[in-house]
Write a structure and sequence with these properties.
The protein is about 45% helix and about 20% strand.
């Protein structure tokens, strides 16, 4: 399934036209793609129906489920527009929803997450206040499969781009939620929002977790739907980056949803990291020259981020059963060509191309055992710490993995 789903990666983009026409004023179309989530999807649907904003069209796109999803959704009657399709992946399912959406605004929700009641109303009110906005997103609270809170504000932990940029500089215009929504819930009275042009910042990683976002229909129409050649990869990242070309972005600095982590049926599993890394690199390569020719990012920053992307692909090529050592070596060479002083890339040449996987696994396990005793600190401050870290636990250290890997959670 993984190989067939990624065979189009690198081909000419397949971006369908969607959301043509003005849409129904004030209506928010919520699209929930799902696959075998009959055990949970009712909680997700209930959280949409419970929104304080009432003008909502709810579409569930069943991407080939074999469980009781159809029966669960049928209980809601005309409140939910149910569409069944043969299994085609997340990008195709979202495009199916976009193809029939009637709303002036568009929101994606995942079939295992829960929105807080104020989410849509807060975002629509901000969209109305700032007509230049193409999208508004929020933070999120991470919970385990039992619903226990893991982290109150999870966005900057899950997406490493927030460690690479100064959000206050990238989104310089700020205000309070109660400035534009005086009747907002008490917990939002002192919450800030920030807005500005995010297109350049998106080169360094995705800022937007899809279920936290609200998009304006006209900007989705301009950008087109999700690129089907990115299936199983970075389709969300590429899509939101493309939308950000046509309007500004805004972040409401509060968690508007409960995001489930560490569940068995999520798509961010280790065997998917190679196609995700490849998709990330492809998205960057397609815009590399454009950014070098004038987009407002320092050339060194652009080159170093590209170097990191090549290195990530190289590592995943070597770790994956579907990878290629030849391709890994080429990507490591590309990484060093872009950033010759990248010590970790040299270390990876040694530890990934020379040492057997069994030795690397043993070294990683050893470091994990030693970490509680503080011995890992000695490794990190050793004069050859770059090499030792790569030998002992490289995959845990790479920031780009934590940045791009979570994009495909339904």
């Amino acid at each position: 399934m993984m190989n067939s789903r990624t065979k189009l990666l690198g081909k000419n983009p397949m971006i369908p036209k969607v959301c043509e026409g003005a849409g129904e004023p004030g209506l928010v179309t919520v699209i929930i793609p799902t696959f075998n989530r009959g055990y949970f999807i009712s909680k997700t649907i209930d959280s949409v129906i419970a929104q304080t904003y009432s003008q909502i069209e709810l579409i569930v796109v069943d991407d080939g489920s074999s469980d009781d999803t159809r029966a669960v959704v049928a209980k809601y009657g005309p409140q939910v527009h149910y569409i069944y399709q043969e299994n085609a992946g997340l990008a195709a399912a979202r495009n199916t929803g976009l193809s029939v959406a009637r709303g002036e605004f568009i929101a994606f929700q995942d079939s295992d997450d829960i929105w807080l009641p104020w989410k849509i109303q807060a975002q629509v009110a901000l969209m109305r206040r700032l007509p230049e906005l193409a999208l508004v997103w929020t933070d999120m609270t991470a919970v385990d499969p039992e619903g226990v809170i893991v982290r109150e504000k999870h966005l900057s932990t899950m997406y490493a781009v927030y460690q690479r940029i100064n959000v206050n500089k990238q989104l310089p215009a700020t205000g309070k939620v109660n400035d534009y929504w005086p009747d907002c819930p008490p917990e939002l009275h002192l919450v800030s929002y920030m807005h500005g042009d995010i297109y350049a910042s998106m080169f360094l990683g995705n800022l937007v977790h899809p279920p936290t976002a609200l998009l304006r229909r006209q900007h989705v129409c301009q950008a087109g739907g999700l690129d089907l050649t990115y299936a199983w990869t970075c389709e969300d990242y590429e899509f939101f980056w493309r939308v950000s070309q046509f309007g500004s972005g805004a972040l409401i600095d509060a968690s508007s949803m409960l995001y489930r982590v560490d569940a068995e049926d999520q798509l961010t599993k280790p065997h998917l990291l190679l196609p995700i890394a490849r998709g990330n690199l492809l998205a960057l390569q397609r815009r590399f020259q454009e950014f070098m020719d004038g987009v407002k990012l320092p050339h060194q920053t652009i080159r170093h981020h590209m170097a990191d992307a090549h290195e990530w692909v190289a590592v995943e090529e070597l770790k994956s059963d579907h990878g290629s050592r030849t391709k890994a070596f080429r990507h490591l060479c590309s990484s060093l060509a872009l950033n010759p002083y990248k010590k970790r890339a040299y270390a990876n040449v040694v530890c990934r191309l020379i040492l057997p996987k069994t030795i690397l696994t043993l070294l990683r396990s050893t470091k994990r055992l030693l970490r509680p005793a503080g011995i890992s600190l000695l490794i990190n401050i050793h004069p050859n710490g770059e090499l030792l870290n790569s030998l002992s636990d490289f995959s845990e250290e790479l920031a780009v993995i934590s940045d791009l890997a979570p994009f495909l959670v339904i």
